[in-house]
User: Which sequence fits this backbone?
């Protein structure tokens, strides 16, 4: 995993529908075999680059379907103030920090399957 200071594409970023339109949140971008993650309040800031093969286990941990620390891509640390930090476990050290409200919206979106990887058919339709 590595980080980028600019997105792979200026389009394709999305956040949970549980975030109000003006609210900052966890943003994701699916690009082939890679999932990019950034903080919407810092669009020019660090970006986590996660192999798509690791994404489902990360989502399982976020949703509480897998034990804490079980994914191999990102360390998820819940802070005393209710916020959450994401830290890359491979590649350059990158930290993304979210408020409790931002993280709660992301978790709700994960539970609603909004961050599931698209199928091959969906990817083909999107590029057509």
Assistant:
């Amino acid at each position: 995993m590595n980080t980028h200071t600019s997105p792979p594409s200026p389009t394709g970023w999305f956040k949970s529908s549980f975030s109000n339109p003006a609210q900052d949140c966890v943003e994701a971008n699916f690009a082939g075999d890679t999932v990019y993650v950034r903080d919407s309040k810092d669009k020019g800031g660090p970006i986590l680059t996660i192999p798509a093969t690791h994404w489902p286990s990360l989502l399982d941990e976020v949703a509480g379907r897998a034990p804490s620390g079980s994914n191999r891509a990102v360390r998820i640390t819940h802070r005393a103030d209710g916020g959450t930090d994401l830290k890359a476990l491979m590649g350059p050290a990158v930290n993304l920090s979210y408020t409790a409200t931002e993280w709660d919206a992301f978790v709700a979106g994960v539970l609603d399957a909004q961050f599931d990887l698209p199928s091959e058919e969906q990817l083909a339709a999107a590029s057509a």
